């Protein structure tokens, strides 16, 4: 923790580039699953990103925080929506989730347009 989330997501994407080529079929399947799972449906894409971010907090996944918070910002999530989601994540995960809630808020500010 403590790294720039823009840098974290860029570095992960860069490091996964060869893997995406070397494991093209599984990665195509993963990408299709992600696209389908995150598409608007009964739940909006925004609600799904809030869920994914809550899971990122509970699993303490720094890269997941970066990618899903970036998605929240792109979808126009408000600070109030993020705070409410984090309240539930902290309620369910206690102190460790509170530490990652701070990371989500840091990433949320970082990904805001300048």
From TrEMBL:
- Carboxymuconolactone decarboxylase-like domain: which residues? 27-106
GO MF assignments: peroxiredoxin activity
Q: InterPro entries, per this entry?
A: AhpD-like, AhpD_core, CMD-like
**Identification of the protein by name:** Carboxymuconolactone decarboxylase-like domain-containing protein
Q: Which organism is it from?
A: Sideroxyarcus emersonii
């Amino acid at each position: 923790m403590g790294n720039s989330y823009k840098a974290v997501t860029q570095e992960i994407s860069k490091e996964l580039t060869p893997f995406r080529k070397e494991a093209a079929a599984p990665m195509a399947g993963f990408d299709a699953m992600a696209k389908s799972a995150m598409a608007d449906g009964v739940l909006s894409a925004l609600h799904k990103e809030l869920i994914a971010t809550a899971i990122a907090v509970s699993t303490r996944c720094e890269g997941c925080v970066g990618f899903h918070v970036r998605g929240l910002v792109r979808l126009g999530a408000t600070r109030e929506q993020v705070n409410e989601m984090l309240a539930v994540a902290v309620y369910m995960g206690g102190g460790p989730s509170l530490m990652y809630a701070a990371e989500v808020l840091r990433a949320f500010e970082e990904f805001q347009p300048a």
